[in-house]
Amino acid sequence: MVRVTIRLIGEHEDVIFISEYIHIGDLVKRIESLTRIPPVFQQYRFRNEDHPFVAHPIQDIKLGEEIVVVS
Question: Which of 20, 28, 37, 68 could make an SS bond with 45 (beta carbons 3.0 to 4.6 A apart)?
Fold first, then answer.
């Protein structure tokens, strides 16, 4: 399990614990349930680059790194 922090500007932080092997489909549904951003409008940035939609998007995340979700 990894700790993931989801932050929206002007809102509180949501901290969730999920498996680093979570499938992209399950991750976008989890993010939608917390942020109300539909998957079609979710965009991801990781290490300051657009993050491609891969099967297990947080498998390579390191301690202290963040995946930024914007719409």
Answer: 68
Q: What are phi and psi of 34, to 5 degrees?
A: -90, -35
Burial class from Cβ neighbours inside 10 Å (0-12, 13-18, 19+) for residue 58 reads buried
Q: How many Å apart are CA 34 and CA 71, to the nearest integer?
A: 14
Taking the CA of residue 50 as centre, how many other CA atoms within 13 Å lie in the half-sphere pointing to its CB?
5
Per-residue model confidence as pLDDT tens digits over 47-69: 777 776 678 877 877 777 777 77
The answer to whether the beta carbons of residues 42 and 28 sit under 8 Å apart is yes
The average pLDDT across 18-32 equals 85
Place of tokens 């399990």: 1
Residue whose token pair is 């297990």: 56
